[in-house]
Structure to design on (618 residues):
């Protein structure tokens, strides 16, 4: 971004023009503060009892402040002016007592408020995370992970500052204003009436600034989402960045996004910093008027010296919450910008939903059917699958082969019901998947996917994912069957070795064998293998074929593969071309047919590299 761009952004923020969506972080529709409360207040219901206690403390604190200040009036008028020690000790003891009580109230108030606030955040974050996992895979794939993460962290915290800390502050300010203003009227109603004249000016200033600060804060939040997106994407692809020497480019990309955030923060800070001195000026104005009028009243003997000094004390205490109110509106509006981004996520409904009354499905037999299925990805301009039909029976292996982008993985995603077909139906044991519970469908399918297939935890836990209640013995048995036991025991901590982020501490073949063990332990009637040998050399491929065959036996297996050599034994092979099934049959039938499959197969056979053994750890 050039300096001109930065300034034009600053100008547009000052002008409160609404921004279009940022390049990386999506913008969220504006939401009224009232709506934010309506949405998030229910999360505080479980803590209602504690909130009552906090409320009592919120009243108690300003009450103790008022009493403390009043002591000074008594001290001046009854001890200092008459030079009489009589009341000194009683006053001193009372002052000490009230100060101790005030300290206790502050401690309990802060501790309790933080406890409730943190519980609120905990519940809300867990809920949002759960909700995100309910959303369709397609939705999550389309979003920037970094932006979603920033919504789950800083934007959630902003909601807390709005719904809880903000509200508590507002209540505390209200009580302070009522108590201090009451004391002012008690001391001298004439002076009190004059001093309140400046209050509307405070209000107007706050109103003027808050709208502009909200616009700047919204921009800032969106920019923060973009920074997280760039950082997340860039760091998680560190190897690619290095390999292509893009370190500088990536750093500049982050810098550009940061500049946007920098400009927005400057605008917000400038507005906030203008607001404070302006309000202080108004305050000084009020105090000077009161000192003048008060001196006159003192001469007239209509107020005591103690009364006047304490009046000024209350007045300065009164300005603080009034000013605080102004600033609070700014904070509240800034926080509501964060809330908008969270609400936008929470309002998302899954594209794939369970039926109202799902057909119960225990352990399926495993008959998989595609009945004239067509499918188009959301926001895509053409179909990824057209008129795809096939049936796979238990014990059979159906292979999907074809060029890159021909729709093989899409077929697998429809079987897992990550998406619903645009027309036609995907069936399991004759039931349309849309009539079944998604969890029931997926429980009956074990997958070995081509993408990163292990999590950053121990080998044992990675395998246990397939069957959460699996015993250690079952895990070892599955690992043996997947030809993984040997290399696992050679790892530094055996089954308790952490595999690193995305399983980076393991080789591709080892990762794949762990995911085969996971699929083994799941023991589902249907097996979906998406490119199980991708990225492996010929020797490693040979090595995992044996455990794969063991895994496949007796199950319905759908195998997606580029590598035609791994699918020769399949009972039926479908060749996909631009989303259509163009050839179908056994390996021999397709070779006899001498079409595209036969041609591809011949190419593969000639390309086959010499086996090179994969290195196992010593
Ligand atoms: N999430 C998505 N959103 C939009 N279009 C997609 C998405 N995923 C895949 N596509 C498109 O759908 C078509 C089929 O993709 P698919 O991933 O099924 O191909 P494939 O045969 O598995 O390819 P490969 O062998 O390279 O994995 C392609 O044109 C692809 O661009």
């Amino acid at each position: 971004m050039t300096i001109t761009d930065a300034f034009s952004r600053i100008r547009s923020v000052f002008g409160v023009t609404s921004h279009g969506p940022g390049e990386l972080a999506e913008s969220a529709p504006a939401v009224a503060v009232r709506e934010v409360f309506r949405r998030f207040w229910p999360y505080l219901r479980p803590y209602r009892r504690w909130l009552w206690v906090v409320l009592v403390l919120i009243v108690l604190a300003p009450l103790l402040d008022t009493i403390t200040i009043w002591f000074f009036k008594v001290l001046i008028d009854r001890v200092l002016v008459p030079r009489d020690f009589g009341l000194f000790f009683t006053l001193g003891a009372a002052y000490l007592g009230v100060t101790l009580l005030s300290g206790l109230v502050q401690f309990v108030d802060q501790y309790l408020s933080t406890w409730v606030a943190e519980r609120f955040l905990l519940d809300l974050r867990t809920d949002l995370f759960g909700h995100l996992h309910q959303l369709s895979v397609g939705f999550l794939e389309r979003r920037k992970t970094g932006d979603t993460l920033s919504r789950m962290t800083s934007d959630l915290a902003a909601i807390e500052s709005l719904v809880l800390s903000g509200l508590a502050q507002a209540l505390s300010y209200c009580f302070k204003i009522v108590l201090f203003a009451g004391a002012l009227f008690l001391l001298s109603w004439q002076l009190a009436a004059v001093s309140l004249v400046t209050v509307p000016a405070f209000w107007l200033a706050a109103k003027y600034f808050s709208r502009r600060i909200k616009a700047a804060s919204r921009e800032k939040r969106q920019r923060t989402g973009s920074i997280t997106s760039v950082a997340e994407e860039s760091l998680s692809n560190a190897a690619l960045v290095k390999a292509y020497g893009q370190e500088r480019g990536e750093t500049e990309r982050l810098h550009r996004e940061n500049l946007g955030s920098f400009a927005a923060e400057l605008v917000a800070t400038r507005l906030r910093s203008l607001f404070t001195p302006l309000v202080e000026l108004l305050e000084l104005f009020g105090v000077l008027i009161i000192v003048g009028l008060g001196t006159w009243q003192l001469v007239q003997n209509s107020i005591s010296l103690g009364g006047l000094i304490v009046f000024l004390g209350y007045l300065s205490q009164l300005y603080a919450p009034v000013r605080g109110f102004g600033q609070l509106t700014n904070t509240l509006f800034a926080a509501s910008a964060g809330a908008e981004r969270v609400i936008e996520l929470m309002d998302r409904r899954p594209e794939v939903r369970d039926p109202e009354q799902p057909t119960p499905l225990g352990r399926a037999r495993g008959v998989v059917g595609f009945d004239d299925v067509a499918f188009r990805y959301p926001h895509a301009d053409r179909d990824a699958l057209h008129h795809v039909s096939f049936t796979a029976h238990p014990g059979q292996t159906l292979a999907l082969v074809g060029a890159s982008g021909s729709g093989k993985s899409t077929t697998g995603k429809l079987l897992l019901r990550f998406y619903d077909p645009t027309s036609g139906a995907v069936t399991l044991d004759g039931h349309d998947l849309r009539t079944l519970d998604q969890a029931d469908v997926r429980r009956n399918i074990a997958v070995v996917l081509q993408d990163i297939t292990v999590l950053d935890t121990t080998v044992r836990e990675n395998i246990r994912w397939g069957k959460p209640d699996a015993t250690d013995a079952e895990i070892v048995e599955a690992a043996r069957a997947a030809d993984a036991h040997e290399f696992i025991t050679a790892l530094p901590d055996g089954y308790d070795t952490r595999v690193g982020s995305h399983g980076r501490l393991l080789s591709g073949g080892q990762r794949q064998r762990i995911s085969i063990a996971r699929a083994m332990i799941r023991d589902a009637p249907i097996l979906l293998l998406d490119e199980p040998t991708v990225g492996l050399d010929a020797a490693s491929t040979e090595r995992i074929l044996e455990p794969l065959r063991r895994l496949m036996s007796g199950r319905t297996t759908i195998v997606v593969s580029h590598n035609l050599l791994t699918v020769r034994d399949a009972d039926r092979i479908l060749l996909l071309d631009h989303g259509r099934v163009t050839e179908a049959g056994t390996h021999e039938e397709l070779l006899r047919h001498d079409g595209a499959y036969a041609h591809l197969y011949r190419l593969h056979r000639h390309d086959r590299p010499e086996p090179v053994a994969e290195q196992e750890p010593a």
Remarks:
- The chain has 20 helices and ten strands.
- Residues 138, 141, 377, 380, 384, 402, 404-410, 562 surround adenosine-5'-triphosphate (CB under 6 Å).
- The first strand starts at residue 368 and ends at 375.
- Residues 1-24, 609-618 have pLDDT under 50 and may be disordered.
